[in-house]
Specification:
Largest sheet: 8 strands, mixed
CATH architecture: 3-Layer(aba) Sandwich
CATH superfamily: Vaccinia Virus protein VP39
Helix content: 25-40%
Radius of gyration: 17 Å
CATH class: Alpha Beta
Distance between the termini: 24 Å
């Protein structure tokens, strides 16, 4: 099994675990991003599985994997949408916080620490938000994600684009002004949309939708046709 976990990255995010659920703390940008991600994911769920916004639990009866789940910021709403959710992360500190946060809400999320490739079974929905740019081997990571996707399942990924704008916004300004913890991003590891599309195609995955996440003073983070800061990709088996 090819290891894709970078120990230094796991340690970096594990050190943020206790503050993960604080919307004003070190994970503030994730809290700002999460509603945008969720809106996009819900659109793709409804389109792929034939559900509608009137259905409050469109993932009922479906299995879900969130790879690189952190402390569960996405897992919890996916569970509320009816999914049988497995949350996987490289940092044991994150998994401990995720379990503690979910327990009093009676959310039956299966949180685990480790590699995607070590999981058994397949999932109807596989998500991985802002993770591929932190792994040691993106190709092996996509290999593992594709292997976990059920034949008629849906995969949704997000990652920063490798552009001058992403360097400026996420590293020079975000980390430089302390809005994001220093060392969170490594610009040379960011992946351009065409590169990610090629990785997916190599593993018999077909991109069926791609949207950007843009930022403006008036709107904050929002879905956009612009891909030069951050973007979301939806893929199915080709």
């Amino acid at each position: 099994m090819t290891t894709t976990i970078a120990p230094d990255e796991a340690a970096h995010f594990g050190a943020m675990a206790a503050d993960w659920w604080n919307p004003h703390g070190s994970s503030k940008p994730l809290h700002q991003l999460n509603p945008v991600r969720l809106a996009y994911i819900r659109q793709q769920i409804d389109r792929h599985f034939g559900t509608s916004l009137a259905n409050r639990t469109p993932l009922s009866g479906k299995t879900v994997l969130d790879a690189g789940c952190g402390a569960g910021l996405l897992c919890e709403p996916l569970a509320r949408l009816g999914g049988n959710v497995t949350g996987l992360d490289a940092a044991p500190e994150n998994i401990a916080v995720a379990k503690a946060h979910a327990a009093p809400q009676s959310l039956a999320i299966d949180y685990r620490c480790g590699e995607v490739a070590a999981l058994d079974g397949q999932f109807d929905l596989v998500t991985s938000m802002e993770v591929i740019e932190h792994v040691t081997d993106p190709d092996a990571f996509i290999t593992a994600l594709a292997a976990r996707l059920a034949p008629h399942g849906l995969m949704i990924l997000s990652t920063p684009n490798r552009t001058a704008l992403s360097r400026l916004m996420m590293i020079d300004i975000g980390e430089g002004l302390g809005q994001i913890p220093k060392g969170t991003h490594h610009w040379d590891q960011f992946i351009a949309p065409d590169e990610l599309g090629q990785l997916l195609a190599t593993h018999q995955m077909q991109v069926i939708d791609r949207h950007g996440i843009a930022w403006s003073p008036a709107k904050g983070f929002h879905l956009s046709d612009r891909l030069d800061l951050n973007y979301l990709v939806t893929a199915i088996r080709a």
